[in-house]
Amino acid sequence: MAETKALPVSVPGTGISSPETGTPPKKKQKRNKPTLSCEECVERKTKCDRGRPQCVACIKRQSTCRYSEVANLIASVDHGGPKQEKPRKHSKPPRAEETAALPIKVQIPTPRTQYRSASLSSSGSSPFLLSNIPYSNHTPAAYFGLGSEHPFANYWTSRGGLGEVIGVLPGKEQADILVAKYFDAVDPVYPMVHRRNFYADYERFWSLSSSEKQQADPVLVALHFVVYAMGTQFISTQSDHERTQIAEFYVSASQQALRISSYLSRASVRTLQAMVLICYFLMNDNHASDAWSFGGVLMRQAYAMGLHRDPDIQTPRCSISDKQQRRKLWQAIFFQDTFLTVLLKLPPTTTFSDVRVESLTDELDDYMTNGVANNGTADAVINPMSISNIAPMSDLYPPYEHSDRRYIRSMWHMANIVQRTVCTPRSLGRPLTSSAKDRLDLVNQYLELHESFPPLLTTSDENEIMNLASSNPRLLRQNLFFRSNFWHCVMIIYADVNDSGGVECDVKNALEAARMAIQAFFHFWEYLRVDASVWWVFQHRTFEEALLMARILAAQEQPLSPDQRGMSPASDPLFQAAKEDARKCLDILDVVGGAPEMQKTRTEVLKTAFADITW
After folding, report:
1. Which intervals of the chain form a coiled coil (predicted)?
2. DSSP-assigned letters across all residues of 454-489
3. pLDDT of 59 above 90
4. What is the pLDDT of residue 239?
5. Among residues 217, 251, 283, which one ends one of the domains?
6. 3-class DSSP state for residue 118?
7. Looking at the domain assignment, is residue 45 inside a domain?
8. For residue range 433-442, what is the model confidence (pLDDT) as tens digits?
């Protein structure tokens, strides 16, 4: 196993500072590298020896010597961090076992508390479902992922430019490990980045000199940094806090690179890929509500790019590969929006589209653009010396490409029905069904759709799950995410109440659906424990499922079977099994990683609900 070096990052616990003065700066040549001198010497325009903890000039002046966050960061790399070996121009992705542990050393900054303003609360349509949205209380509801700190820590100066971001790149070996971890843990669930094209751009970027890197596309740099951030979240370290700090620094660098690219007025496929990943990072980092807000910008940019339109109509001159990439990216945005609104109970945004699910076919085209989309502005020019023409077709796509496309289509079909039947009515505080027959018909639609999906994507058989864990962990991840999302939504439908329509909570079916959903989390925890500790969306669904089961069980006074009337609810096998599942879920969530305040609040809410079960 290759030795893993420490990420050379150190972030001091001082406040955010900037070398800017109060007067307008004179016009001068833009700096291509960050300012490393102390703020006092920068302001006085005097020479600084950059000594620490105080430079000589500040000692002589008897003034306070402070450095910017970036100056401290780079100083720790140059002087305090481990030296990096000379990066290789080309390298293969490291094996999975090489990513088992990544020691990280960083100083944790002092957080600045920020509270959100209050707004009207949401009234749920079931007494057993979690109904308050994140903005419904004067203080943050920690179990919703409402972090107290700003989601993007500001380490950057106003004139540093891309050179400032390039200056804090990890070493090539560390970057290789983080990219490999991203494609191992994140890409199977959200397969929207073409792996071969990404690695081609990645190796090309790392082969550049330092000055050439500063002339690179800022959006490419942003995509690289958010991939590093996501990969860091899934790396085993001795300290969760240190890992979090490193990951947050990388995502801040990604957002800064997007700002440099003017992403609010200009967008590309890479821009939106980076933004999708930033949203998922924020969710995992206890900032789900910030992810919702940031996702709003993502949706607008996706609409502005025309991703919601059929590529055959919108970009007819694009290559087949570009069109399929646009479809994959739209599905990723659509899916993220739909299932985040399921959890936050807010209105969906990706409601206008004419992109058909079936348009993402299994056809493997014979032309690859290596990530450079022409966006329909010109006919694709095939370079006879391009890698796509030199390499055989089998090398252009990974062996799991067809399996991924079946997964994408399945999740897409599911998101379509969920957005229409769950997200929209819940966001308006309306019941999901108007009568018992209406609910039966709706559940049958879900079950018929379930039957149309690939068997290995829907199976919950213990032996088949065990085989997938050993032979195909990529498909296992897809199976677990599909099952969790699908049965969670079925649970919501069965638990929904409509008094005017005579629709009551279907206790038996709601508990069974909740158990099917929560079983996916138990498999996740058993076979992919690090991943299960990171994904906020999975954890929060499981939390809601356990909470619903506990609340339903607390309201039961007798078994479901008429033959057991007068007996204790504990005699009902389904009740007893659901109670054991809820207890097991509580035990896991009590030790799972993540933000301490969110973890504590979740377990306290579940313990309170569980204590109400008196039998």
Report:
1. none
2. -HHHH---HHHHHHHHHH-HHHHHHHHHHHHHHHHH
3. no
4. 78
5. 283
6. coil
7. no
8. 999 999 999 9
Residue range(s) defining the domain that contains residue 489: 447-559+567-612
Residue 73 lies in a domain: no
For 242-299, write each residue's pLDDT tens digit: 888 899 999 999 999 999 999 999 999 999 999 999 999 999 998 888 999 999 999 9
The SS3 call for residue 172 is: helix
Specify the CATH number for the domain of residue 501.
Answer: 1.25.40
In this prediction, residues 198-204 reach a mean pLDDT of 95
pLDDT digits (tens, 9 = 90+) for 315-335: 999 888 899 999 999 999 999
Helix (H, G, I), strand (E, B) or coil at 503: strand
Mention every residue, 6+ apart, whose C-beta is less than 8 A from residue 489.
342, 414, 418, 422, 446
Q: Which amino acid is at 48?
A: C
* 577 pLDDT above the threshold of 90: yes
Instruction: Look up residue 20 and give its two tokens.
Output: 């800017």
Instruction: Please identify which residue in the block is written with the tokens 């720790």.
Output: 76
| pLDDT value of residue 119 | 34
* pLDDT tens profile 443-477: 999 999 999 999 999 999 999 999 999 999 999 99
Give the pLDDT confidence score for residue 383 in this predicted structure: 43
Measured CA to CA, the distance from residue 548 to residue 569 in angstroms comes to: 17
Cβ proximity of 453 and 383 under 8 Å: no
The pLDDT, as a whole number, for residue 56 is 83
What pLDDT is attached to residue 77?
54
Q: How many CB atoms lie within 10 A of CB 46?
A: 14
Is the residue at 289 inside a domain? no
Residue 41 domain-assigned (yes or no): no
pLDDT for residue 129 = 61
- Cα(219)–Cα(322) distance, integer angstroms: 18
Give pLDDT, residue 564: 82
SS3 track for 33-91: CCCCCCHHHHHHCCCCCCCCCCCHHHHHHCCCCCCCHHHHHHHHHHHHCCCCCCCCCCC
Give how far the C-alpha of residue 240 lies from the chain's centroid of Cα atoms, to the nearest Å: 17
The whole-angstrom separation of Cα 43 and Cα 65 is 12
Tell me which DSSP letter residue 98 carries.
Answer: G
The tally of domains found in the chain comes to 2
412-423 burial: b if 16+ Cβ within 10 Å, else e: bebbebbbebbb
| Residue 122, both tokens | 């949401």
Distance CA(468)–CA(233), nearest Å, equals 23
By CB atoms closer than 10 A (0-12, 13-18, 19+), residue 136 is middle
CB 67 within 8 A of CB 10: no
449: phi then psi, degrees, rounded to nearest 5? -65, -40
Give me the sign of the Cα torsion angle 60, 62, 66, 72.
Answer: positive
Last residue of a domain, one of 283, 300, 316: 283
CA 437, 442, 444, 447 dihedral sign is negative
The pLDDT of residue 149: 61
Residue pair 334/415 in contact (Cβ under 8 Å)? The answer is: yes
